[in-house]
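Hi team, as promised in this morning's meeting, here are the two structures we talked about. I've kept the exact order from the run log so nobody has to guess. The first one is mostly here for context; it's the second one we should focus on when we meet again. Sequence first, then the predicted structure tokens.
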Amino acid sequence: MTLDDALAWREEQRAAGKRVVFTNGCFDVLHAGHVEYLAWAREQGDALIVGLNEDDSVRRIKGPARPIVPFADRARVLSALRSVDAVVGFSERTPEVLIDKLRPDVHVKSSQYREEELPERDVVLQHGGVIKLAPHVEGVSTTDLIARILKSYGE
């Protein structure tokens, strides 16, 4: 979705009395940990919108070799998941600007973070939202997966 589409979608959800959950990330090489995380996030409300870091944003966060999968493909895969109702891209490193516009009821992050350390915390709370920390699956990450692939192929 474009930002305008996402805002219209959010207003439709609000008008229908639905509790909107937001989460965000790079979701570069989708794996079981991502799927479990997104399913947990979706259970926290009635509809889940995912803020997806655009390619330049991923490079700023993860380095010049990332993303492995381009934005359009990552968005398409995420959109196909049963737990995901909407996907919207954003170019910043962190999602404060997007959250300020969408005003979700619930913001989900992994429990590998602490709520008070989240840069988006104040924006979520100022709009009356709550933050929920999803269980983190240890040892399952895109970085770990890439390392295993490189080791398997002798790089």
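And here is the second protein, the one for discussion:
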Amino acid sequence: MSARLVRCGVVAAFVAAGGAVGAVVFAGAADRVPPPAAGSTAIMCHADEPGHRLLIAGIVTDETGRPIRGASVGAYNTDASGLYNPPNAGTREPRISGTVITDAEGRFQVLTVYPGPYPGIAEPAHVHFGANAPAYAQAWATIWIEGDPLITAERRAWADRDEETRIVPAEEIEGLKVARVTIVMKAS
């Protein structure tokens, strides 16, 4: 099976024959964001999508912290203007979305555009995740990126009480924002 390297700014994705995405890597930064195994990466938006890119490196674990291999993780977010779809799109399915399967170490990653906040609503910009795996209850996570001016003291207190919402830092690596998320699944 042949593979080719596709560059998207400062990142590169290995794309296997047939279009399956391998892993997103950074020149010189693999030790800081080790990529998951091939097939556990989703590129959620086209290279021409307006806005800054955001890489989210994640892991799915059980309640004891053991990684869950083969979990299906769906992710979606708004575009840079805060919309899931253009006005009058005729669908409620988010335009920027993707699904991945975790590798043997429970890892996955998604490359997306930094989401914008909903227009006219003071909710921080966010990315949604849903995870499914045999023998586990479905799990949800929503991340807000630290530094968002809409993360007020009141919002921060609410996120501290909410099982689903996490405020996560994003570091800059070679011009790309990188955030991390852990999704914990409970046995069913």
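Starting points for discussion:
Residues 46-185 form a domain with the Protocatechuate 3,4-Dioxygenase, subunit A fold (CATH 2.60.130.10).
Helices lie at 153-161.
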